[in-house]
Amino acid sequence: MIGILETKDGIVQTPPSAYQPKEEIKKLTLKIKQDYAVGFGILHRKFEEFNDMSLIERMNADQKAFNSYVEQSSDNPDHKWRWNGVRPITANKVRAVAAQLVAATLIPGIFAQNDLDEEDKDAANVMRYLVEYAILNSNYEISYRQAILGALVNPIAYLHADYAEVLQTIKEKMVSGEISEKEVVDEILSGFQAHSVPGDEILIANSYQYYLQKQRFLIRRRFPDYDELKGRYGNHPNWKFIRPGIKVLFNEGDGTFYDQYDPALQTLGEEVIYYNRREDMEVLYINGIYFGKDNVKNNLIRHRDNQNRPKYCYAKTGFGLIDEGRFYFYKSLVFHMADDQELDDRVTRLLVDASWLEAMPPIAGIGTGNIDSQVMFPGAFHPFPKEASITPLGTGRNLGNLYSLLNKIEQSIDESSISKTGQGQIYPEKRTKWEIQRAETNSVVQQGMFGRMLGDLVKDFGELTVDLILLHETVGQAAETLGGETQLKFRTVLLPNQTEEGKKITRKIVFKPELIGKKMTKKERLIESFRLKKEEGDNRKIHEVNPAIFRNLKFK
Question: Is 540 helix (H, G, I), strand (E, B) or coil?
């Protein structure tokens, strides 16, 4: 999307691209290119909040710590013997916290109210069942776990809510024996989708605007394989301009697009999706080439609420706030433990090196001449002159202070994350009851704060899920009946293995177009309820819903 064109005497040396769109697309591209540069700059800007690191650098540092990254040992033989390993304290603490928080997947609860601002419990229950159905029939659970781990390790984690309708080509054998092909809905890839998004794939407009929906723009940037891109966008007329290894850059100076070679794009393409909520705009670019509508004004944000208002389709979370709530990003658990982990590494290395010297101390030979280091192995024999003496150097070290310091470091790490007792471990060393209780209390407080962050994530993601259900599940599709008439057909949702009053039932939700505009008396409602009760039997529960009224309710 952005890059530096090679120029000489003000003339661009890069060859012009075959892709040269119309003027309105050029103007839009220039605007998005400028916003892309802003977001890219924030991604690589150094922040005091990250200890003078950029978001990318902070992510790399924290991911190295989580993976117990070990620097290469020195090539200097005088230093090569030193131990430079890392105790996996950070990794163990992160996994312990994650294990406790993913033990139960959080599913959003739903509250509904009508135009009279009265609580509508029946509608809330139906929406809750629909949300549960969407979540159970998607990859939400694994994406939720990935988001938790991402928030513990990185400065930010995202969940993306989407609704896809993907077609696949199937083959059928006809009566004549010939094979015919037809397109049907791919049930696996279609429907509600939940995705965990890495923090460095989202570019933002303002690093000091905490709320995601208040960002002037969002940009999703990812690098999928060309086969995936072709499968999704190969029918767009601009796909013919896509060439592996080539990205297209717009030069506002002369209003021309130029091809530039990029070795990083040999097998992967750059997919950039630009969102601007205030302007109600969602535009796709691949390798710098516009893949939007022919009329740029028709590039509307796809995610909308039931009042047709655009929203960003992402929800964010993190381990803990860095300031009072201005900074967009968070402080990860790994970042919280960084200083303690570094100090622990230093002390542990000192202990290992000192213990190594105690076990095999260097020696000084007095009156022996040169002693070859090859004689220093078990069972070796070496004759010395009668007057010679061998003296070990530096033995008798007192390592107690280092062990005491190591214990204090571990207490500090417990207070920042989760104690050993919270991990299910028994303290082998002697600890006072007060010390254990303090560590446990601090662990609960830290996890409680992160739990509230996750609560905000689930709430925001739940609202996005409700939007998608109202937009897609409550809208009828045109279907032709046997008599040749076209009628609206609504989807029926079945939820098996539901527990109600101690027994297993199958819950059936039916959107009935016959109810649209229909007014029922109290007696008619009673008659309908008896009819449903008779149809349900002992192991079913049927909910018949007026899609028009349901779609216009306020859900939280």
Answer: strand
The predicted-structure confidence for 434-464, as pLDDT tens digits, reads as follows 555 555 555 555 567 788 888 899 999 999 9
What proportions of the chain, in percent to the nearest 5, are helix, strand and coil? 40, 25, 40
The answer to whether the beta carbons of residues 475 and 489 sit under 8 Å apart is no
Q: Which ranges in 77-195 belong to alpha helices (H)?
A: 77-80, 89-101, 121-136, 140-153
- As a whole number of angstroms, the distance between CA 281 and CA 86 comes to 48
Distance of alpha carbon 206 from alpha carbon 328, whole angstroms: 8
Q: How many CB atoms lie within 10 A of CB 373?
A: 7
pTM confidence score: 0.82
Q: Is beta strand 157-164 parallel, antiparallel or unpaired with respect to 167-173?
A: unpaired
pLDDT tens profile 230-278: 888 988 999 999 999 999 999 888 889 999 999 889 999 999 999 999 9
Please give the Cα distance from 46 to 56 (Å, whole number).
9
Q: What is the pLDDT of residue 294?
A: 93
Q: What angle do CA 76, 362, 376 make, to 5 degrees?
A: 90
Token pair of 463, please?
Answer: 């609202």
Q: Which residue has the tokens 């390790």?
A: 153
Give CA angle at 340 (335, 346), nearest 5°: 125
Residues whose CB is less than 8 angstroms from the CB of residue 473 and which lie 6 or more positions away in sequence, other chains included:
130, 491, 493, 511
> How far is C-alpha 379 from the chain's CA centre?
58
CB atoms within 10 A of CB 75: 7
Cβ atoms within 10 Å, residue 361 = 15
